[in-house]
């Protein structure tokens, strides 16, 4: 069956044709390991995982590479501000190496918990400095880069296709207010390939231009070329990377190699929280641990992610995750009923469901539609054939459907409206709105449930 993906570069869905028959190389921009990843970040990696699973379902052997950014990512993606690792080191008194090791481990635990298959290789930027220096040297030799007092910059005007991915116009950018003008740059959009380090800078290496450290963008070109070759199939990342990071990757890689480096560019949309941006100041950049503390399992969060197509924004609210939990519980309960079902489902019916499922996932990863197929499937008369087919779909969903057990009373017996009221009550308590909290307790009680406050949230039980 034909597999089609939306390519950000061409702005259309295209048939997927791999470079090597039966094999696919994917590069994903990995986390900057200076703090805990939040659930928005994790959406990017669930998307990476769904992509890989859909390719594997289609019989491809996938090599996936996800870098670990442990140097060079400045506070602003466009070369401004302090290095994020360096900033975290100053704030905590730890070394960048210690910080990177700690948050990399936490990140790996989160991806395991979310059933995200670990990428084939997860190289660290700091292990690939020599490769980066080599590319910078070559770009200088070829005249695409220039040296300034504070580093080596890529000259975007030397690359005629600059802006093709995001549709920006360089001439407008020169005068636009959006980009800060750095005195050293010839064009405001020029970006650092290498930065010269002050003696007190913690992360620095020898280079032909003195002691320094790499710019952020160059690491992805160095590591993708090293592990996937000069041209590879798919590059992924969040939409925020389109206008700067990926535009820069394309420019430096194509100028260095003399040809295209990536065939398909795929980007996931952002996660919003309560309809707005996540931010430190709003204290809403929730981590997986925050979600688990409130009583939701990682797989319920995964179910929540899968309900929205990766190119649509997804809005996280506590009500919405509560609804996802209830829906997931119902799905598992319905599936459980098929496990020992004795009705034989006709092969034609099974095939029809399989075809609908495959058509959905192969149409630019329409996982929400594929979940809809699963929901209709479990509504069929109770049959072990249905159970087996659902488990084969779960190779793509990774929702632990093989672990479904006798539904736990507490999970499935709490109706969605009661859980939503309990979530609202929890929110009211956080705001110290006690009268609203009491009112909601009474409403929950009228529906036949008692709510008990716990250290992390609440527990509901039948009265
Ligand atoms: P970072 O660790 O900042 O480099 O980000 C890791 C990944 O998370 C990148 O692919 C970003 O595009 C992505 N990302 C950051 N914020 C969000 C968000 N709110 N929703 C979805 N993806 C995000
Ligand atoms: Zn990258």
Structural domain tally:
3
Number of DSSP strand runs = 14
Largest sheet: 4 strands, parallel
| CATH architecture group name of the largest domain | 3-Layer(aba) Sandwich
Please, what is the CATH homologous superfamily of the largest domain? HUPs
The average pLDDT score comes to: 92
**Strands in their spatial order, largest beta sheet:** 4-3-9-10
What is the succession of H and E elements? EEEHEHHHEEHEEHEHEEHHEHHHHHHHEE
Distance between the termini: 53 Å
How much helical structure, as a percent, in the residues?
A: 40-55%
User: How big is the Rg?
Assistant: 25 Å
Strand content: 5-15%
What's the tally of helices?
16
CATH class of the largest domain: Alpha Beta
User: Low-confidence spans: pLDDT under 50, at least 5 residues?
Assistant: none
Q: Identify the bound ligands.
A: adenosine monophosphate, zinc ion
Structural class: alpha/beta
CATH topology heading of the largest domain: Rossmann fold
Q: What's the short story on this structure?
A:
This protein is of the alpha/beta class. Helices cover 44% and strands 14% of the residues. It has 16 helices and 14 strands.
Description:
The protein is α/β, with parallel strands linked by helices and 463 residues long. The chain has three domains: 4-268, 3-Layer(aba) Sandwich (Rossmann fold); 273-407, no CATH class; 416-462. 44% of the residues lie in helices and 14% in strands. The protein is built from 16 helices and 14 strands. The strands form five sheets. It has a four-stranded parallel β-sheet with strand order 4-3-9-10, sandwiched between helices. A four-stranded antiparallel β-sheet has the order 5-6-7-8. Helix 1 (39-57) links the parallel strand 3 and strand 4. It starts with a strand and ends with a strand. It binds adenosine monophosphate and zinc ion. The site of adenosine monophosphate has 14 residues, from helix 1 and strand 9.
